[in-house]
Amino acid sequence: MSLKDNNLDIDRITAIIAVAIIATLVISIVLGAFALIKIISPENDSQEIYAGDMPVQTRYSGQQIAADANSPDDNTINAYQSSNPVSEGMEDTAFLIPQFIPDDPYYSHTSVNSSKPPEPEAGNDALQTLYSGSIDMVYTPLSLRANVGKGPLIVEYNTESTLEELDPYNSFLEITVSDYETGDILEKSGFGRQYSTAENQTLKVLQTGDFRIDLYGNGVNVDLNVKSGITSLGYSQKYPEEQYTSYNEYEDDDFLPWW
Fold first, then answer.
1. Residue 89's CB: how many other CB atoms inside 10 A?
2. How far apart are CA 104 and CA 232, in angstroms?
3. Which residues cross the membrane (predicted)?
4. For a tag on the chain, would you pick the N or C end, based on fewer CB atoms within 10 A?
5. Does residue 51 sit in the same domain as residue 110?
6. Is the domain of 199 the same as that of 142?
7. Nearest-CA neighbor of 157 among 183, 137, 178, 185?
């Protein structure tokens, strides 16, 4: 074999080795790149969500956490929670106060006599009666103050027309519940005029607080019951002397309406 042939074989071997080295380097670079991507972006946030009553499955670092899809978040407020509010340290009472002056030239200064609420029925742990009375209204205003430490405030009223012919305009009742301190109106209801002519109705204020209840009506007899929530600890209620006081017209000319 000549020297020229030997040199040719060496060149071929060198070329093959070089190609192998380059291929190895390329493969190493590709594998390294995949490994780097794997490290930077691990598969750690995949989720599977099922509709209806199926649970929500979350996978993270090999661990599984199951939760009820219909369960509320910790910060979600129960829709019925506000129907039974409680204010600590406030005693539930309701009593008559000097009546407001309606913006009506026909209103009268009719005296209103209140009556003591009946004792609660045995085992009644839902509502307590704060005030109960029957009023014949002839353009008559009536005002009460209700302190409610355990809500809701409930105003039940049975309205019967005393006119020979039921006239939704002349036979009417309007009830307004407002914040006693600010005068902000919270709820309004009534009988006749813009309100329903159903005899038995209920007005609810789903909160606690110090309330003013103003009634004004004509041609109706109203059986009124003001109630509030009560705990299962039992019935404990004091009635202030004002509850049994009959208020007439404003005898003091210097007395101004509450608003």
1. 5
2. 44
3. 12-37
4. N
5. no
6. yes
7. 137
Answer whether residue 74 is part of any domain: no
Whether residue 172 contacts residue 219, with contact meaning beta carbons closer than 8 Å, is answered with yes
pTM above threshold 0.70: no
**Which residues span the domain enclosing 52?**
3-68
Q: Which residues contact 211 (CB under 8 A, 6 or more apart)?
A: 145, 146, 147, 148, 153, 177, 178, 179, 180, 186, 205
Bridge partner list, 132: 115, 225
Q: Is 170 exposed, middle or buried (0-12, 13-18, 19+ CB in 10 A)?
A: middle
Overall residue count recorded for the chain in this entry: 259
Residue 193 token pair? 């005029």
User: Structure tokens of 243?
Assistant: 């509850």
Same domain, residue pair 107 and 190 = yes
Q: Are residues 91 and 207 in the same domain?
A: yes
- The pLDDT value recorded for residue 250 is 37
Which H/E stretch holds residue 85?
A: none
Write the CATH number for 234: 2.60.120.1540
